[in-house]
Design brief:
The protein has 9 helices and 3 strands. The chain is mostly helical.
C-alpha cells in the first residue's frame, strides 16, 4: 500500500523489495539472511509479530538481527496493533481475537476482518497513515520495551527512512 503511494514518481528512486516468507522470529531472520547474503542491500528490514514468541526467542532475534545488520520492525501482540493505530490511539492490551473483533466493527472495516486480512487496505488506511504515525509515537512514550510492552509497535520509527518521506 505505502509502496504504491510513495513510489518512484512521488519520492526518491529508492528500491524496495518486499518478500513474504510465512515465517516468524529466528526462522524468518535466517531465511532473510539466506536470501540477502548474495544481494548486499544497503538496508534490510524484517517485519514480524510477537505471536507466540517468548522473550528468550525475541532476545535471540535481536542478537541475530544485530549480527546480520538487519532492522526488526515489530508489533505486539500482532500487526493489527499497527492497523488499529490508523483509527485510534489506545494503550489497551488486546488478544489477537479481540483485535480482529474490534477491527471488524462498523467504525473500522465494517466487515469480518479475519476474512478481510490480506485484501488491499488502501481504501481504509492510505489516508490514515499520518494518524497511525502520530498514535504510534504517543504509544511509544509509555510502551518502549518491545519484550515487555503490549501493545507495542516500532513501525513508525522506520517508515520515514524506508520511504524517504517525513510527512505521511
Amino acid at each position: 500500500m505505502l509502496a504504491r503511494k510513495y513510489s518512484r514518481k512521488n519520492v526518491s528512486p529508492q528500491k524496495i523489495m518486499i518478500k513474504s516468507m510465512a515465517k516468524s522470529g529466528l526462522s524468518l531472520l535466517d531465511g532473510a539472511w539466506r536470501m540477502e547474503k548474495d544481494r548486499h542491500h544497503e538496508k534490510v528490514y524484517v517485519v514480524f509479530d510477537r505471536d507466540a514468541l517468548t522473550n528468550a526467542e525475541l532476545s535471540q532475534c535481536q542478537k541475530l538481527a544485530k549480527q546480520y545488520h538487519f532492522q526488526i520492525l515489530f508489533s505486539c501482540i500482532n500487526f493489527e496493533v499497527w492497523i488499529l493505530l490508523h483509527f485510534e490511539y489506545f494503550e489497551t492490551s488486546y488478544t489477537p481475537a479481540q483485535l480482529v473483533k474490534k477491527l471488524s466493527g462498523k467504525n473500522f472495516f465494517a466487515t469480518d476482518y479475519q476474512k478481510f486480512k490480506g485484501q488491499p487496505y488502501d481504501a481504509f488506511l492510505l489516508n490514515r497513515v499520518g494518524v497511525a504515525m502520530k498514535n504510534a509515537t504517543l504509544l511509544a512514550r509509555t510502551n518502549q520495551n518491545w519484550l515487555q510492552s503490549n501493545p507495542y509497535t516500532n513501525l513508525h520509527h522506520y517508515l520515514p527512512e524506508i520511504f524517504s518521506v517525513s510527512k505521511f
